[in-house]
Amino acid sequence: MNKILITLAAGMLALTACQNELYNNPMEDYPVAQGAYVDAEGPVQIFVEEGKEYHVKDIKVGITQKEEQSNTIKLETGSQEQLDQYNAANGTAYIMLPQEMYEVPEQMEFQPSVTKQILPVVLKNIAFSLKGEYALPIKVVGGSVQAIPGSNEGIVILEKLTRTKVLNLNTDGRNTPENATMFPNDFKVDYWTLEFMINRSAYTQNNMAVCGTKQVENAGPHDEIYTRFGDVTIDPNQFQIKTGSSQIDVDKKAFAAEPNKWYMISIVYDGKTHKIYVNGGLVAEQEIRSGAYGLVGFWVSGMNRYIREIRFWDSPRTEQQVKNYVWKMVNPEDEGLLLYYPCNGKKRDMDGNITEDTGMIWNWATKYKKAHPDANLDLPAKGFYSEEEFVFPLQNE
What we know:
Number of helices: 5
Oligomer: single chain
Largest sheet: 8 strands, antiparallel
Helix content: under 10%
Shape: elongated
Structural class: mainly beta
Radius of gyration: 25 Å
């Protein structure tokens, strides 16, 4: 069932409380004076598929008083200033929905005695940008009825519904996709974030490795980044990262993996502290080591079952960034993205062209590749891609 996220855009943070009261029941706050306002149920999210048409019926426009005469309410859509204010107030980075992807009337006619009606918003020919999710700001700007300050704005936020094949590495563990010649021997990162999405059919064996970095030859375990489920001291469904000549074991009270479920795991190193997130929630935090990590490449385990959205950043992602991109793809051109394997059986070239190609596990990130065009950042294509298509964000959990 499709859901729609409609959230009120606050004009000024200092007025949030009174605005909320005004929005909740404009009739009580304006018992005499006539005024027009935006009425929207929320917060509720909408995830839309590309190329489909959606008729949004969750936004209404109302006036506070019944009248025996007709009224005309004028509307404004697509205000960049309004969107910028919303992003600044909410710590988001939505981009404007292109005008060719929506239809909204410029005004609404209210017949006598009518106080509220649906604002018809049509979303069409949606084609998402990898630079972020779209938003459509809407504002009541007057007409024959004055707009009520603080309650005259709304914003429709579109999140991408991704339908994709995923990589299946359910092999005997000897066919590990790896590449140890990505970076020179002196390559280091001061901070990093490792993210991946995984779904396993069973958690019954120890040392079920997931992915990690390749180290300089003869290097010790201090720079190791090795992720897995299970060890001799923990259960097979407990997550562990080996790093800094030590490890972090996630308490099962915080996270215990279950078969046939998708999890997005994010590990953030800020130069001192390692934090582990599962589906955007913090499950472990520990100081093990400090300083830069050395690496020459990357590997993915050959016994992962399903895996997708493997990302390695040379920056520490914030908690909000981790939460915002739990189930989503990220922008391959992000400045901090060093390696990016969507694991969807598709290749993306430096010009942004995407083609079906299961010949490799393709790296989509462009930052390092632009500076080092001869560098090979792809992984060997071991395993195969699922015939089944999975939908993200998850629709039944």
